[in-house]
Amino acid sequence: MSCSVFNFLKKSIPASHVFAVFSGLMTGTAFGLFIPLMVLSNSEKVVSYEEVAAVSMVEDALRLAGRSNSEEEGISYITLPGVQKYDGPRLAQSMPIETKETWLSWMGKNRGDDPAFLEQRWTWAQNLVKTSELKHPADVRAFLLTPREYFVRAQNKGLEYADTWLPIGYGATITDPDVVSMMTTTLNVNPGDKVLEIGTGSGYQSAILSYLTKDVYTIEIIKPLFFETDALYHNLEKTFPSFSAINRKLGDGYYGWGEFAPFDKIIVTCSIDHIPPPLLRQLKAGGIMVLPLGPPNRQYIMEIVKNEAADGSIILSRRDVYNGQSVRFIPFRDEIGASYSTPVIEKSE
Ligand code: SAH
User: Fold this and answer.
1) Lowest-confidence region among 84-93, 111-120, 196-205, 285-294
2) What is the CATH number of the domain that holds 245?
3) Which stretch of DSSP H or E encloses residue 285?
4) Cα–Cα distance between 120 and 160 in angstroms, integer?
5) What letter does residue 237 receive in the DSSP assignment?
6) I want to staple 218 with a disulfide (CB 3.0 to 4.6 A). Which of 98, 183, 197, 307 is the partner?
7) Neighbour count for residue 175 (Cβ, 10 Å)
8) Atom number in ligand 1 closest to CA 225
9) How many angstroms separate the CA atoms of 184 and 177, rounded?
10) Residues 220/232, Cβ–Cβ less than 8 Å
11) Phi-psi group of 74: left, alpha or beta (phi > 0 → left; psi -120 to 50 → alpha; rest → beta)
C-alpha cells in the first residue's frame, strides 16, 4: 500500500518540483515556504489522462443518479412553507366567474388587487379562452386571480397585460401570457398534484400554479433573480396568501428536487435540446412534463407523458402542443452559465 502511494507520488510529482520543495524548505525563509506551497498546490493538478477520465466518470455517475457536486456541497435553498399551506385552489373554486360584473364585485370585496388592472385581466382571459390557450375552468380561475402587474418588472410599466414576453433583468424574461396559458393548460394540474417548475424567473408561472394546487416547487439558478422573486412573494403574501405556499430553491434545476420527488407534473421554462434524465426520473408514472424542446434559436412546446409498462420499462408519448409553430425561450444553463444544449456548429461556406 505505502509502496503504491510512493510510486504514485513519484509519477505525479516531477523531480523538478521535488527539488523546488526541498530547496524551499532548506532556506527556511518566508519566501522559501511560499515556493514549496505553490509547487505543491500545482503538483496536485498533475494527473494522468486516466485520472481525468475517472473524475469525469464520477461526475457523469452523479448526474445520472440525479445529483451534482454542487448539491453535494449543499447549494442553499430557502423558503419551505411546511405543512400549513394556504389553500389557493379552494379560493379559486369559490370565485364567481359567470359575468364580468359578478367577478369584479367579488374581487372588490375579497381581494386587494389594484382595480385599474382588473378589466384588462378579464378581457385577456376571455381572449385566451377563445384561442383555446386556456381550456379548463380551473386554469381560467387561476389566471383571473394572478396579478401579472406585480411580476412584470418596473422598467416595463404599462406593458403588464401586453401580449408579449418582457425582459426582467439578468438576461431572463417573463414569458408571454399566451405561452404561459398554453403550457399551464397542457400541464392539466389537479388540486393535490405536486408540481415542479424549472426557471422561477419573474415568479408569475408559479403564482398561477399556486391557485391550481397547494404543492408547488420552483427552482431558479440566477442568485440575484432568485432573491428578488423570493422577496416579491414575501411582500405579496399578505394580500395573496397562496404565494406563501410556493416552495422555492436556488440551484440547478437540471437535477430536479430529489428531496420532494416524485412529481405529478413538471414544467420547464428554459429551453433545452433534450429531456433532462433526472427530471424524467423524478416524474411519476402517468405524469406530464411540459418543456420547450429544440435547438438554441427555436423550440417547440412539447407535452411528454411518462408511462411505465408491466415489465418496468418506460414509455414516453410526445405531442407538439403548437403543432409545428416554434417559440423561443431563455437557455437552460448550468451554474457557470454554459447551456445544456449541444452547441450548433456553424457551417463554413
Ligand atoms: N417561468 C418564468 C420564465 C423565466 S425565463 C417566468 O414566467 O417569469 C427562464 C428562467 O429559467 C430564467 O430565469 C433562467 O435563469 C432560468 N434557468 C435557466 N437555467 C436554469 C437551471 N439550470 N435551473 C433553474 N433555472 C434555470
Assistant:
1) 84-93
2) 3.40.50.150
3) strand 283-293
4) 9
5) T
6) 197
7) 23
8) 13
9) 10
10) no
11) left
Going through 135-243 in order, the beta strands assigned E by DSSP cover 166-169, 172-174, 194-198, 215-220
Q: In terms of Cα–Cα distance, which of 217, 267, 268, 209 is closest to 242? A: 209
Distance CA 212, CA 77 (A): 23
The DSSP secondary structure of 99-128, one letter per residue, reads SHHHHHHHHHHH----GGGHHHHHHHHHHH
pTM of the model: 0.78
Number of structural domains found in the chain: 2
Q: Which is the closest atom of ligand 1 to the Cα of 170?
A: 15
Nearest one of 154, 239, 238 to 202, comparing CA atoms: 154
Name the grid cell of 72: 453535494
Q: Which helix (H) or strand (E) holds 177?
A: helix 177-187
Instruction: Tell me the pLDDT tens digit for each residue of 290-322.
Output: 999 998 889 999 999 999 888 888 899 999 999
**236 phi/psi in degrees, rounded to 5:** -90, -15
Q: Which residue has the cell 412584470?
A: 152
Owner of C-alpha cell 370585496: 109
3 state SS for 279-330: HHHCEEEEEEEEEEECCCCCEEEEEEEEEECCCCCEEEEEEECCCCCCECCC
- 224 and 84 share a domain? yes
Selected residue with higher pLDDT from 192 and 21: 192
Nearest protein Cα to ligand 1, atom 17? 199
How many Å lie between the centroid of ligand 1 and the Cα of residue 202?
Answer: 9
Q: Which of 198, 205, 328 to mutate to test the pocket of ligand 1 (most atoms within 8 A of CB)?
A: 198
Domain of residue 213: give its range: 49-320
d(CA 201, CA 21) in angstroms, rounded, equals 51
- 195 C-alpha to ligand 1 centroid (Å): 16
Q: Say yes or no: 311 and 244 in one domain.
A: yes
Region for residue 251 given its phi and psi (left: phi exceeds 0; alpha: psi -120 to 50; beta: otherwise): left
